[in-house]
Every structure is written in structure tokens, then in C-alpha cells.
Amino acid sequence: MTEKQLAVKVDHVSKYFRLPTESSHSLRTTLVNRFRGIKGYKEQHVLRDISFEVGQGDFFGILGRNGSGKSTLLKIISQIYTPEKGSVIVNGKLVSFIELGVGFNPELTGRENVYLNGAMLGFTTEEIDSMYDDIVEFAELKEFMNQKLKNYSSGMQVRLAFSVAIKAQGDVLILDEVLAVGDEAFQRKCNDYFMERKKSGKTTILVTHDMSAVKKYCNKAVLIEHGLVKAIGNPENVANQYSFDNTVPLHQEMDEETPQEEKAEEVIRVENFSLELLSSRQMTPKDAIRFKIEYDVVEDLETYIALSLTDIDRNIWIYNDNSMDSMQSGKGHKTVFYTCSLQSINDLKMKLEVTVRDKDGQMLAFSDATQTPIIMVSRDDIAPDDKSALDSASGLIQRNGSWTFRD
Questions:
Q1: What secondary structure does DSSP assign to 243-274, as a single string?
Q2: CATH number, domain with residue 210
Q3: Residues 212, 395, 244, 74, Cα dihedral to 10°
Q4: Terminal-to-terminal C-alpha distance of the chain
Q5: Which one of 65, 215, 363, 395 has the largest count of C-beta atoms within 10 Å of its C-beta?
Q6: Main-chain phi, psi angles of 236, to 5 degrees
Q7: Nearest 5°: phi and psi at 222?
């Protein structure tokens, strides 16, 4: 990519902060500590050799968990921070919207705040004059522009601040976690604006935790983890990697909540329960989900297996089977296989939960934190412009599974 085609170039950028480890109120103490080799601070490395390029007209997503270094990177691109190593090149006028309402004065009117904020973004009075009507129209606040900002509701302030950022006629727009601003009607207007901007050839850099937004708007994305570039390129692949990575702490949180004391008081009738996912944790709707359940029944009773697949993000059932078709009688070791398909879903992160029950429905064993598989389902056959397919959601899917038993 030539320099003329580049909007932003991040070249081997590294950034660290010095965090004090002791309090020193005198020069003497500081000097003594320095001679002893005690620095009095530690270095927190937030970014480590970050490199990527954003082309003109790109809608570029930056993903990463909290603390990964995303906001620091945006502040370096926006020239708020200076990197310890590396450089950033921005071609054109940059409009950075990292925090809602920064630079707004509650004692000034809405109109005065537009001009104040525009000046802080580097626009002249004449340039703001030309943008003013578009900003007010988008914010839908025409009748309130001569009122002081402190008399605005929080929603009105958000709409005005956001409108100044996205309607400012910059070459590069940077947005940090601001897709959920305003009410539902305003969010729809913002959605339409982003779709128009994507087609306009203007460059946008978006930081978000909303993976559906990444897949909907972005044509490129980068995933930052522990200050390093973990993945870069196709937004579908990068977003799926981010979602997949986020399933790891779920096991740890569930493990901490396991009611060990309650277990000790229960009469054990089923033991040595295990659940093993035989299919891949990352799959497409065309692939079958297959897993194996094993357990030992220590009393002469009837047992069956109930299971569910739950959408982690929405916390709703996608699929369940408690039909008692897996009912078995007697003591001994039980091995059961289950196979099902979820052909009508897309872009879903699910957890598989399984229980063993007696014929009255009482739970005898269940999949604990270490045995609860997380399954990612993403289609690989969707055209990039097929938004309806990309946005497809799911309700409860009709049971279609089959049981296989092994003695």
C-alpha cells in the first residue's frame, strides 16, 4: 500500500507507563534509593511492537478485552500520548471521539459547545459554520441549542456530543465504545449513518466489544491481546477469535461458584460423571454436534440424561432435550453418545450443559465447570454484503438429536 493510499500507519509502536512502588517526599530519599538500585517505580508495558495499516476508505475495527491496550493505542493515534518506540502516521484531518462529552462545558449553550468542541478538534469557525446545521439536524436538538448544556438530559447531551464527532468533516474518524449511545431511534439513525459512511470512502477506526457491529461495518480488523497483535485481517475471523478467547474465563468463574459443601451433604447415587465433546468447539451450522456422557449408577434405579445448549450472550436456550429417550435401568457403568444439528443458526457462542436425572426428574449429577464445553457456531458461506444472513438470530430449535448406548 502506497503512502497516498494510507490513512493511518502504526509502525512498531510500544508504550509503557511508570507506576510508583513507594512514596518518596524528599530528594535525599530518592537519591539514596537510586544509589541502592531502587527505582521507586515499575514499568507497565501496555503496547508491545504494534504494527498495522489502515487504508483510505477502510472501516477498521480494533478489538481486545479490557486492559489489552486498545484505548492507549487510540490515544497514541490521536496524538494524546507519545509512544516510547515506533511512530504513527495519519494522512488527513483526524476527528477523535474517545470519550463522550469530553470538552463540553455545562455552563455554555448547546450552540456554544458545538463551536468549542469543533475548535478543540482543529476546525476553524468557518468550517464549523458549514457543519453546524448537519450536526443540529442529526442530534434533533434544534429547539434546544440556545439552552445551557446543564439543562439538557443525559440523553440529549450524548446525542449532541456524538453528532459533533460523526458530522465533523474529518478524513479519519476514531470512535471508542460509542455504538450504544442514545435511545433506540437514535441508534437506528447511527446505524444508517455508519452504513452510508462505509460506502462514502471516508476512513473510520472503531473500537468495540460488539462483534456483530464488527462483522456488519468493518472490512478489516485487528485483535490486541496483552499489548500484542494476536490476529489481523478478515473481520469475521478476527471477531470469531475474540469471541472464542472470551469463553476461557467462563470456566474459571463457574468453577469458583461450584457448591462443594452442598455436594458433600447429598446422598450419592450417581458418580464418576464425565462429559466429552467429540466434535469441534469451532464449527459451522453444517457440522453435527456430538458428545459422549459416562457415569456410574450405584443403586438399582432408572436414569436418563437431560441437556441444553444456551446462548451465552443472550442467556436463552437454543436447544434442549429432556425427552427421557435416554432412559436406562439398573446399576453399573453407562456410556451414552448424543448427536444433533443446529442448521439454522449463525454467529453464536453456546455452552453445553448436561445432567443425569432419575425417572422423577431429580438431578443426580451434572456437568461442572471443567466439563462444560463452549461451542462457537459461525457460517463460512455468507457473502460479505448479505447482511440479513449475517444478522440471523435464533430462537429455540426443534429437537432433532439421536441417542446411542454402549454397554
A1: HHHTTHHHHHHHHHT--HHHHHHSPPSEEEEE
A2: 3.40.50.300
A3: 20
A4: 62
A5: 215
A6: -60, -50
A7: -135, 140
Which of 250, 400, 388 lies closest to 313 in space, CA to CA? 250
pLDDT digits (tens, 9 = 90+) for 353-386: 899 988 877 889 888 767 788 898 887 766 656 5
Which domain range does residue 185 map to?
3-14+47-245
Of 152, 193, 161, 159, nearest in space to 96 by CA: 161
Answer whether residue 260 shows pLDDT above 60. Answer: no
CB atoms within 10 A of CB 407: 6
- Residue whose C-alpha cell reads 457456531 in the numeric block: 377
Instruction: Give 182's pLDDT tier (boundaries 50, 70, 90).
Output: low
Q: Which residues contact 192 (CB under 8 A, 6 or more apart)?
A: none
Q: Are residues 205 and 352 in the same domain?
A: no
* Span 193-252, pLDDT tens digits: 888 888 888 899 998 877 878 888 899 999 998 889 999 999 988 888 887 776 544 444
Distance CA 155, CA 181 (A): 8
Q: What's the total number of domains in the chain? A: 2
| 8 Å CB contact between 364 and 303 | yes
Cell readout for 397 is 430449535
pLDDT reading at 262 higher than 50: no
Residues 331 and 300: beta-carbon distance below 8 Å: yes
